[in-house]
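Sharing a chain and its predicted structure for anyone who wants a worked example. Both blocks are below, sequence first, tokens second.
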Amino acid sequence: MQNCIHKEVKSRLKSGNACYHSVQNILSSSLLSENTKIKVYRTLILSVVLFGCETWSLTLREERRLRVFENRVLRRIFVPKKDELTGEWRKLHNEELNDLYFSPNIVRVIKSRRKRWAGHVAHIGRGKVYTGFLVGRPEGERPLGRSGHRWEDNIKMDLQEVGCGGMD
């Protein structure tokens, strides 16, 4: 109603943290392969965090928080590496995590789900309740300063990234 997605993302990350801490021993176990740990992450933790993400209008701040959460989990899965020159153990950098984790990052998954949901809602037709997401306008005036993005604005930006920006 208020287009304040900050609280929703915060509660989803809180639930994701609880799930992460419950499987923390599994993710740091040396008995399991990295592929198995990634499957645990994608099926348990990621599904908890991304519940209902199709309707989110993310800001850069929320995108950053989600990426920080994902990188923390991936650092647990991909253990620290020993530096060849100094012989010291070090945490992996974000670029190294991206190279090791072949699946799309959490923000790309959200954008993909958002586009799929928009297509689903557009296919349903105008007579249904869901079309309020597409054609509805928030009531009242927007606050002064930089206005918040609507869900429709985020869909348009997602489509422009793919190269379908001119489509209605």
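Comments welcome. The mean pLDDT is 82.
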